[in-house]
Write a structure and sequence with these properties.
heterotrimer, A mainly alpha, B mainly alpha, C mainly alpha, A: mainly alpha, 20 helices, 0% strand, globular, B: mainly alpha, Four Helix Bundle (Hemerythrin (Met), subunit A), 6 helices, extended
């Protein structure tokens, strides 16, 4: 709770920091604030809640900070701080001032933290809305770019509609159970004969979440929005929002609906379609951002495995997967931003000959792509490994085979960009790329983490 | 008496909601939507939740819909500028929403058999009054109430940032 | 129960008649006040002192030819003035005109409906009143009308915020949103005008803007927009719009008296000493007296101050009134928390 309070206060302070002549002030504030909130989350480990300043009663019914929450919360904080660092030497023209941009990142983080720690559906709804509204605005951060406007509008319209669906689902579940509290709902779910509106409610919630994590058949907004939004925001959307949404989804199903698993068939079919659409459509893309959008859809398919094959290890496998995916994605998007800045294009051909012009950057992007493709010994491999093993343990053999097949398809388009970088020659007049300092730091951190998690995934999976 | 009123208001709500969808001119749609909100407020008042009813009226009918009307009036939309959809979209929309309707109908049919005592909500006629609402809001739902301010900050920042005129525009 | 219903029905009818009567004579009052302030005589031909003038005006309105522009949306064109007058008349229901009347040993409140959210009710109905203007202005299919309508509605939305904040301050003082509680709370103690003097000025300004009265009558300023949103209206439909405006002024004045000047509280008299019915009668008279005074203030302001420019109006509303209203809210919190217990 303290971390949420801190971040909420910081949003306001940050706005005032925008008045300051010192441009770095709001960056420093945000960075320190996010780090502090990660620490504040960390000290709650194993229930050491010593610093509650509000009457605990009010909070306990709304938010709870168990170890799963804390680990994912810290992951979200790290994710956000990396994005803040990237923004610091961001050279892509952004039409909204940095202080406001950072404020929106912070509100997004507040929403995400609410979503990973809720124990009451009202908090889940508020978190989802805070997250989404910040995202709608950030998607339109390039005000003079029609693509960005289109992305913001599309995302907003679809998102608002999904919010309606979500609320309707919550209302129906409330109608059946008479409570917003997850423990009460879980009690109801354990009863022998739940009402039909309860099931309809679950399905509507599923639809809303499928939209947020961009799972088929609710993924149609993703390519346009990911492509149109500023690349940094795309990175934020494909990592932070996805983590928050999938964790919220996981918490909801793990705590509330774990008793009756008749919804798992729906999720399984959804996962199968999502993996197919994501991977196969990504093959024909020539725009790298668009390709990564489809890749992000495909990853949602793998993530759904953790939900329908719900078991003791689901949380841990989700964590390893999400961590690997997050750092690899940030690495990839950071690379794309640099290339875009120098070549003024996101096209696959813009990456031609990158291996010669800036080998370090090329290696970074390669590692990111390999991790996303799930090549051992990188983080992405172990994420997939844990998730598929869990599914196989629960006797989901056919879908696991399908997923492995789809992963193989994925390797093709991830490697295409690598081939372009190393085996195609650049235009003759190309100059050398320069990596700004903060990009070097962020890419270094991500690179280390991707490799580290690939070598020793146990450090994360042992946590929960 | 209140059952009769309930049916009257429900009928009016549904009729005006259908009006929103079927009317050809945007202005009529908006006006039907305002009527829908108005009748929903009546439902709230029927449940003795006067505060919610009135606030629903102030916020939706009084403020948000005015802005809607504003935009529509200034854009001067009419029948000709309505985008044409092809038949495939229309048919699939009909099938999809028809299926949703069937699912919802069958689900709600089930609720007739509910034993009302099993519902956790103890409905008294005092529950919607201003004082009780305030008490609940500042005790049980304090955290969501305060967190919603972050939502508003995000909204305000967004409105200012996206709506502000830049120098030279 | 039957007596109760009959009493309330009579009250509704009386209130209806009084409201319309006041609105009618407010037109007369306006012209007389204008004449007084401009050192003229004003209407003096129809009846003694020109007292029959409003009736003559009304008759003229009825007789005039009714014109519905050919191209306008006919239904909406008629709906506009209907909404305007209906919402204007609805507001009076929540205002307490007196405390209680004793009939055959039973006490009846001299208020059509003592809603526990009375002030919000008025607020809601007023905010619905915008539609009358907007729909009428749009249905006229005339650029001046549309501009007038857009001006009126954006002005009303903008000033509703500050007005709402002033009202919240009063609600904080009272601890209730019922108008009767607000009047009772001031009864026999200090009127709200003392701690809320600042809020009163803000509220008065907002009320002027909400009523589309000068100096904020930009919706119908003749120099720019011919007649504003009712340019295309004639006959009794125009009459309805004008009536709605005067009724709104009447209700605003009554609201100001209730919120800041003790409502039906008779100054310097302990109401409890009088017999119930005598007290009620005097209270109604006092309340009407206060209301008429504020109607006079409205007119006084109209004939004293020049009209604002539209950008000035918006700037005033958003840049000055809103922050000041928030400041007033903070002051009220301090007052309720620390100063009131000392008194």
């Amino acid at each position: 709770m303290n971390s949420i309070i801190l971040l909420s206060l910081l949003t306001v302070i940050n706005l005032f920091a925008g008045f300051s002549k010192n441009k770095n002030l709001s960056f420093i504030l945000s960075f320190i604030g996010i780090a502090a909130s990660a620490i504040l989350l960390g000290i709650l480990w194993n229930g050491n809640d010593v610093t509650n300043i509000l009457a605990p009663n009010f909070i306990n019914h709304m938010l709870s900070f168990d170890n799963t929450t804390i680990v994912f919360g810290v992951l979200l904080c790290v994710n956000a701080s990396l994005i803040v660092l990237l923004l610091h030497s961001h050279e892509e023209p952004m039409d909204i001032p940095a202080a406001e941009f950072l404020t929106l990142v912070l509100t997004m983080l507040v929403g995400a933290l609410c979503m990973v720690s809720y124990t009451n559906l009202t908090m889940l709804f508020l978190g989802l809305e805070i997250l989404s509204i910040s995202a709608y605005i950030l998607a339109g951060a390039k005000k003079r770019d029609y693509r960005s406007n289109e992305a913001a509008l599309k995302y907003y319209l679809m998102g608002a509609f999904t919010t309606g669906v979500f609320l309707f689902g919550v209302a129906l579940i409330y109608g059946a159970t008479g409570s917003f509290d997850v423990t009460e709902i879980a009690k109801y779910a354990a009863l022998p004969n739940p009402q039909s509106i309860y099931y309809v409610g679950i399905i509507l919630l599923m639809i809303a979440f499928a939209f947020k994590i961009a799972a088929a058949p609710f993924h149609f907004w993703t390519p346009d929005v990911y492509t149109g939004a500023p690349t940094l925001v795309t990175a934020l959307m494909s990592t932070l929002i996805k983590t928050a949404a999938i964790v919220a989804f996981y918490r909801l199903f793990n705590t509330c609906f774990a008793g009756a698993t008749n919804w798992s068939m729906i999720l399984m079919i959804m996962a199968a379609i999502t993996m197919f659409i994501g991977n196969v459509t990504a093959i024909v893309q020539t725009n790298v951002k668009r390709m990564l959008a489809y890749s992000s859809i495909a990853h949602s398919g793998y993530l759904l495995f953790a939900l329908f094959a719900l078991g003791n290890n689901s949380g841990a496998s989700l964590l390893v997967y999400m961590a690997g995916y997050t750092f690899a994605s940030i690495l990839a998007f950071a690379g794309i931003i640099v290339v875009q800045h120098n070549m003024h294009s996101n096209d696959l051909n813009a990456f031609n000959g990158l291996g010669k012009r800036n080998p370090i950057l090329a290696v970074c992007i390669t590692i990111a792509m390999l991790s996303l493709a799930g090549i051992p010994p990188l983080a992405g491999f172990f994420g997939k490994f844990y998730i598929f093993t869990n599914a196989l343990k629960a006797d989901y053999v056919a879908i696991s085979l399908w997923a492995v097949l789809m992963s193989c398809v994925g390797v093709y388009y991830y490697l295409r960009i690598v081939i372009n970088m190393f085996f195609k020659s650049a235009e003759p007049d190309a100059k050398e790329f320069i990596l700004p300092a903060s990009y070097q730091i962020v890419m270094g951190i991500c690179l280390c983490l991707v490799v580290l998690l690939g070598v020793a995934p146990g450090i994360l999976s042992g946590l929960i | 008496m209140s059952t009769l009123l309930f049916y009257i208001f429900s009928l009016l709500t549904i009729v005006s909601a259908i009006g929103v969808v079927v009317s050809k001119t945007p202005i009529n749609s908006i006006l039907s939507l305002i009527a829908t909100f108005f009748f929903i407020s009546c439902h709230y008042i029927l449940l003795n939740a006067q505060f919610l009813g009135i606030v629903n009226m102030i916020v939706y009918a009084g403020a948000i819909m005015v802005l809607f009307l504003f935009t529509i009036m200034l854009l001067n939309l009419n029948k000709d500028s309505e985008p044409q959809h092809n038949n495939f979209v229309k048919v699939s929309a009909v099938i999809a929403s028809g299926m949703l309707l069937i699912v919802l109908l069958s689900a709600f049919k089930d609720t007739i058999n509910i034993n009302h005592n099993t519902l956790a909500v103890v409905h008294t006629n005092q529950v919607g009054l201003l004082q009780n609402l305030g008490t609940v809001l500042f005790t049980k739902f304090l955290v969501p109430f305060e967190i919603s301010s972050v939502l508003f900050i995000a909204g305000v920042v967004g409105a200012v940032v996206l709506g502000k005129k830049e120098i030279g525009e | 129960m039957t007596t109760y219903i009959i009493f309330k029905l009579i009250l509704v009818l009386v209130l209806f008649a009084v409201t319309l009567g006041v609105a009618m004579y407010a037109t007369y009052g306006e012209r007389k006040v204008a004449a007084f302030l401009q050192d003229r005589i004003g209407p003096n031909r129809a009846g003694p002192f020109g007292l029959l003038q409003p009736i003559a005006d009304g008759a003229k309105m009825f007789m005039k030819e009714e014109i519905i522009p050919n191209v306008s949306n006919k239904w909406l064109f008629i709906l506009g003035p209907c909404i305007a007058i209906t919402t204007a008349l609805l507001t009076g229901a929540a205002i307490p005109w007196g405390n209680v009347i004793n009939i055959n040993g039973a006490n009846y409140s001299v208020q059509v409906a003592d809603l526990n959210i009375g002030i919000l009710y008025i607020f809601a109905v007023v905010s619905l009143g915008v539609y009358g203007i907007m729909i009428g202005g749009w249905a006229s299919n005339n650029k001046y009308s549309l501009l007038g309508a857009v001006r009126a509605s954006s002005q009303m939305i903008s000033y509703e915020l500050s007005m709402g904040l002033c009202i919240i301050a009063i609600v904080m003082m009272t601890g209730s949103a019922s108008l009767n509680d607000m009047a009772l709370q001031q009864n026999g103690s200090v009127w709200n005008i003392v701690p809320q003097a600042f809020g009163f000025i803000l509220f008065l300004t907002c009320a002027l803007a909400e009523c589309n009265r000068a100096p904020f009558d930009l919706a119908e300023c003749e120099t720019e927009l011919i007649g504003g949103y009712h340019t295309e209206y004639s006959s009794m439909k125009l009459g309805f719009y004008l009536f709605a405006e005067y009724i709104n002024m009447f209700i605003s004045a009554a609201l100001i008296s209730t919120l800041y000047f003790g409502g039906y509280d008779i100054p310097f008299v302990n109401d409890g000493d009088l017999s119930t019915n005598l007290a009620a009668t005097l209270q109604v008279i006092t309340m009407l007296g206060k209301t008429f005074f504020f109607i006079f203030v409205f007119m006084w302001i109209r004939w004293t101050l020049p009209r604002f420019r539209y950008d000035q109006l918006m700037k005033l509303g958003w840049n000055y009134l809103l922050p000041l209203a928030i400041l007033n809210l903070v002051w009220t919190a301090v007052y309720v928390m620390f100063i009131q217990p000392l008194i």
